[in-house]
Amino acid sequence: MGGLNRFTIMFNQAFCIDDSHIDKAPLPWCHLAIVSLEESHRRGRQQQEHHDAGDDPRPRTHAQGGRHLFKRGLLSPRLMEPSWWRRPSTLPLLLIVMALAIVVVGGSIRINDAGESCPEWPTCFGTWHFDVSEEEQAAYWAEHPEEIDSRGEDHRYTTFQIFVEWFHRMLVGVIAVPIVYNVFATRRNASVYGKPVGRAAEFSAVMLVIQATAGYITVRYDNADWTVALHLSLACIFTAGLLWQYMSMRLTEGAKWPFMQTPVAFAQAHSGRIHSMTAAVGLLLVLGAWVSSSAGGQYNQSCSVGFPNGWPQCQGSFLPSLDGPGILIQMIHRLGALIVGLVLILGVSNLRMAAGGENGSTDLVRYAEITTGIWLLNVMVGGSYIVFAKVGDFPEWLSLLHLVVGVGAFLAAVFLMFAVRFSTTYLAKEAHDLVQPQPGEQE
């Protein structure tokens, strides 16, 4: 106690003596501070003596010590969590980024009219590189007349067009390596993350093979509209599988996402509605891919251009004549976007009324609102593509943005759907674990 007494005297002389008083009495707040210091020191001495005496027969574990430190505020639990790039869940997250990059490059192929720039698969004009001159293209057509595409044997592709298609294929080959590693990594950590995560990794690997096969079919049939829609659909399913794996692994690692507080009754009651919203957004995305690739993308000007004749009207009317196939396809796409919008708006309205401001439920409502907002943004992007176009000259970068935002809306809807499923399955699992007897306990 000698050290504490000396410290108390110094503290009192330095801060606690009011020189305005003749008797130099300590200020009231200083008295409280000194008492608090003495009490804290006394408790610390008692704990140290208790520890030295060995009176505590219970073994102290590292985890127990960690909790003690956290309670006293000396350490933060965040300091014990590994950096994001060291978590196993980072791998599927990076794969999602790579998958989205492949989708963007695939959209670049369409807007650059490079879908048939490599007439065969997996090689390109019989080579593994992209630098193919016009003379080499002519020689290839002469040797392989069966590979001549819809543009005819006299058409020549630029080096950039061939590069975009070649780069797209290269990315698919590059992502195959971490996809295979992902399968083995999840098997090795099955005891931590569970078998469903391993099956999700295997699903992604199978989907990559199917997606590559769909790419071959797209080349084989010269980018027919149905092949392009199939290719994009499979890419979205592939990305959704990786998203599920990432979310499952992060929850196992202890992520405290707000939607996990959603009441089970709310999640179960609105699960069907949220699944319907997700399906509607997915169907609209497929429909858009079909429209953009029909007739080689020439139907984009079927409704004319500019505002308002081209958009929101079509040929100057909200109910145009459907004589031509181009107008019919355009109106199907626009009607589909309108129906999906109604599904989303009504779904958000019902969710908001049922949420009642409860924790977790409001987060699901916010995710649904984000999905609806992205849909609305994409409607504006699609309209801008027509409004800012001129006859024979369309801003194709807006077409690519239309695709990217559409994929973003789909993934936002998928995240909402997975959030509902995880909020029910994980709560059920935790409840099951609570009622199970621990090892060594009697049932």
Described by the principal axes of the CA atoms, the overall outline is globular
Number of strands: 0
Secondary-structure-based class equals mainly alpha
- How many domains make up the coordinates? 2
Rg result:
32 Å
The H-and-E topology, N to C, reads as HHHHHHHHHHHHH
Percent helix range: 55-70%
Mean pLDDT: 83
Low-confidence stretches: 17-29, 55-79
Number of helices: 13
Percentage beta strand: under 5%
What features would you highlight for this structure?
mainly alpha, globular, 443 residues, 2 domains, single chain
What can you see in these coordinates?
This protein has 443 residues and is an all-alpha fold. The chain is built from 13 helices and no strands. The protein has helices at residues 2-16, 28-52, 62-72, 90-111, 134-143, 159-188, 190-193, 195-220, 225-252, 264-293, 325-355, 361-387, 396-435. The longest helix is centred in the last third of the chain and has 40 residues, at 396-435. Mean pLDDT is 83; it is low at 17-29 and 55-79.
